[in-house]
Every structure is written in C-alpha cells, then in structure tokens.
Amino acid sequence: WDKEPDETSNMLLALERWVESGVAPSHLTAVRYKQNRPASGIERTRPICPYPQVAKYKGSGSTDDAASFECKVP
C-alpha cells in the first residue's frame, strides 16, 4: 500500500466532502502506521464496514492489506 491518503483512508477528508458537497463515502479504509507515525509508512489497512457488516478475510492475499477483506454480515 503506497497510495497517498484520500477520502477513503482519511476520515476528515471523507467527512468534509460529505458535509460540504453532499457526497457520502462509498467505502472507508482504516490505516495503521508503523510506529504510529505516518512518516514511517503504512503497516496495515482494513475496510471499515457499515453496521452490521464486518471485515472478513477472503482467504488469500496479505492479511495486512484491505483488498484481502470484504464486508459481510456475520
């Protein structure tokens, strides 16, 4: 994951776009930074799912990459 934060991974940008432009985010991605510092790089990403869905591992791919998960009802 070497992508710059955008409205899918930056909650403030997503909220700003939703409030100011009326565009709700289609999905959100949580990001955990190495050593809790963005300058250190990204350690892990996960999708943030709408309730009652939860992120479930697809069975292949890195468990540190949001693309390896999908939102499912438990």
Which overall shape is indicated by the principal axes computed on the Cα atoms? flat
Structural class: alpha+beta
Q: What letter string, H or E per element, gives the SSE order?
A: HEEEE
**Number of helices, where a helix is a run of at least 4 consecutive DSSP H or I residues:** 1
Q: What is the gyration radius calculated from CA atoms? A: 13 Å
| Helical fraction | 10-25%
Task: Compute the separation of the termini in Å.
Answer: 27 Å
Give the beta-strand count. Answer: 4
* Neighbour order of strands in the largest sheet: 1-2
Structural write-up:
By secondary structure, this protein is α+β, with helices and mostly antiparallel strands. The chain is 15% helix and 28% strand. The chain is built from one helix and four strands, in the order H-E-E-E-E. It has one helix at 11-21; strands at residues 28-33, 42-48, 54-57, 69-72. Strands 1-2 form a two-stranded antiparallel sheet. A two-stranded antiparallel sheet has the order 3-4.
Briefly say what this structure is:
The protein is of the alpha+beta class. The chain has one helix spanning 11-21; strands spanning 28-33, 42-48, 54-57, 69-72.
How is the secondary structure organized here?
Blueprint: H1 11-21, E1 28-33, E2 42-48, E3 54-57, E4 69-72
Antiparallel strand pairs: 1-2, 3-4
Keywords, separated by commas or semicolons:
74 residues; alpha+beta; two-stranded antiparallel sheet; 4 strands
